[in-house]
Specification:
A hairpin with a 3-residue loop joins strand 2 and strand 3 (about 50). Strands 4, 5, 6 and 7 form a four-stranded antiparallel beta sheet that branches. A three-stranded antiparallel beta sheet has the order 1-2-3. It folds into two domains: about 5-80, no CATH class; about 85-200, no CATH class. The radius of gyration is 19 Å and the shape is globular. It has helices spanning about 5-10, 15-25, 55-60, 65-80, 85-90, 100-115, 150-155, 160-170, and strands spanning about 35, 40-45, 50, 95-100, 125, 130-140, 145, 180, 185. It has about 200 residues and is α+β, with helices and mostly antiparallel strands.
Length: about 200
């Protein structure tokens, strides 16, 4: 990455986008990749968006010795993942995802500002005041958000699929919470779904 980067800290946002594009190309992706500077994202192919804010922050916060490996992992997670057309093929890998409510609020505002249909906002339900529950398809290196087109294609309601997804998560939760001190417990799977396990009330 050069001597300047080594001695003067993490790369600029523009340089990080270039590094991401290079790393994605190394995975074998041949589709066009465009850097949309105003949104700080990559457009891969015609419609796959890779937002860079969070991974750039993680990259900058990581020790220099770990940044190359982190970049490779970011690149793998950015590769477009296809959700199976057949519901039976997709169901085993559908999982519940708790994330900040602002994620969906931001998508809604973007749709309103750009004149898009609000139906483009993925289905979700509010959890508490600041979080929301959505659904994802869990691939080897990335997670794809389940949208309304997926539900329509499969002929299943969001609420029913949430129940099925929670069943998948419950089946993978085969050990107990870890007690970190008297009366305090931690979900320690580190599989992106520790927060979602808050919904497994029987387990808790």
């Amino acid at each position: 990455m050069g001597l300047l980067h080594r001695f003067f800290g993490p790369p600029s946002r523009r340089k990080f986008a270039d590094l991401m594009i290079e790393a994605i190309r190394k995975t074998g992706v041949s589709a066009p990749i465009e850097f949309i500077e105003k949104d700080f994202k990559l457009l891969i192919g015609k419609d796959h968006h890779c937002f860079l804010n969070n991974i750039y922050a993680e990259y900058c916060a990581a020790p220099k010795a770990n940044r190359s490996a982190a970049l490779d992992q970011f690149a793998k997670s950015a590769i477009p993942l296809e959700v199976p057309d057949r519901f039976e093929d997709a169901l085993p890998d559908i999982v519940p995802r708790i994330r900040e409510r602002i994620f969906y609020s931001t998508l809604r505002m973007q749709c309103e500002l750009q004149g898009h249909s609000l139906m483009e906002v993925p289905p979700h339900t509010v959890i508490g005041e600041h979080f929301a529950l959505g659904l994802g398809y869990d691939g080897p290196n990335s997670i794809v958000t389940i949208d309304r087109d997926n539900l329509k294609k499969w002929g299943i309601a969001f609420e029913e699929l949430v129940t099925r997804a929670l069943g998948n998560l419950r089946a993978s939760t085969t050990r107990q919470l870890r007690e970190i001190r008297a009366g305090y417990y931690k979900a320690d799977w580190k599989d992106n779904y520790d927060a979602s396990r808050a919904l497994l009330l029987d387990f808790i």
